[in-house]
Write a structure and sequence with these properties.
Blueprint: H1 3-8, E1 15-16, E2 19-20, H2 38-46, H3 49-68, H4 73-91, H5 97-115, H6 120-135, H7 153-179
Antiparallel strand pairs: 1-2
Helix pairs in contact: 2-4, 3-4, 3-5, 3-7, 5-6, 5-7, 6-7
């Protein structure tokens, strides 16, 4: 369609690519879509609040796994990469750093609970982690949110349950395995 065709059809509702033209000035300012570069698509993916949150939690868990099982390099490297990518994503989002601090405090409480017996720290850790997850961006219950950046509530529930299971089952088993006395000793050698 040429500019002449556009000018001839002015007066009726004119659609260009499915979008209505609002004024005669629009006839001279037709914007054609251009392909988005792959790197910009990657940055847009990191700016998704669910992806940034998931990378943040995965990075924390990877670093914790490296601290608990020292010498296995893979969890630490993966955790550091996820944490750096999460910080790139969180830097482009309206992040409440108090919520991120609550998530970190929940992880620390889980680590302390593995060393100390009792359920008090586990319950506190789940509460801190869940509240931090709710508050890291706009809470789901906020009616008049300026930014509209929110986590999917099911992401929060699933991640909180997964982190709780990771610590209660995986990390506690790894630490208990380190505390078992060795089966072999000098007295058993011939």
């Amino acid at each position: 369609m040429t500019r002449q065709h556009l000018r001839l059809s002015w007066g009726s509702l004119l659609l260009l690519g499915g979008l209505p033209l609002a004024s005669p000035a629009d006839l001279n300012q037709i914007v054609l879509p251009t392909p988005v570069p792959l790197f910009d698509q990657f940055l847009a993916l990191l700016a998704n609040p669910n992806v940034a949150y998931f990378l943040f939690v995965l990075g924390l868990l990877g670093l914790v796994a490296e601290l608990v099982t020292a010498g296995t390099v893979f969890p630490g490297v993966l955790g550091a990469i996820c944490m750096i990518l999460a910080l790139v994503g969180l830097g482009s989002l309206p992040t409440n750093w108090g919520g991120a601090a609550l998530i970190f405090a929940g992880i620390v409480m889980f680590l302390l609970d593995v060393k100390v017996s009792g359920w008090g720290l586990s319950i506190g850790a789940l509460i801190a982690f869940g509240l931090g997850s709710l508050l890291i961006f706009t809470p789901p219950w906020a009616a008049a949110a300026e930014t509209g950046v929110r986590l999917n509530p099911w992401t929060i529930v699933g991640t909180t349950a997964g982190v709780g299971a990771f610590f209660l089952l995986g990390v506690s088993a790894a630490i208990k395995a380190h505390l078992i006395p060795p089966v072999m000793g000098r007295h058993l050698l011939i």
